[in-house]
User: Fold this.
Amino acid sequence: MIKKVVTLTNKLGIHVRPASLISKTASKYRSSFIIRKDDMEINGKSVMGIMMLGAGQGTELELVFDGVDEDELMEEIVELFKDKFGEE
Assistant:
């Protein structure tokens, strides 16, 4: 299991496009992927779940990866956050 904390730095936070990118990327892997914000915990492979976080710019999220390909999944998801989902 890998836990990673990321901060949303893109201007609009998580909206439909980033949520879709996160879900689509995570769904390529067999490992489970959970996103935690405050007291919420959602499946990172669910677009609707990700949207329900209501995460804006500056929000800290804990990402939890668990499974056979957790390293690769973590690297690709964290890169999406670092790249600001290709928005800027």
Q: What stands out?
A: The longest strand covers residues 60-66. The chain is about 35% helix and 25% strand.
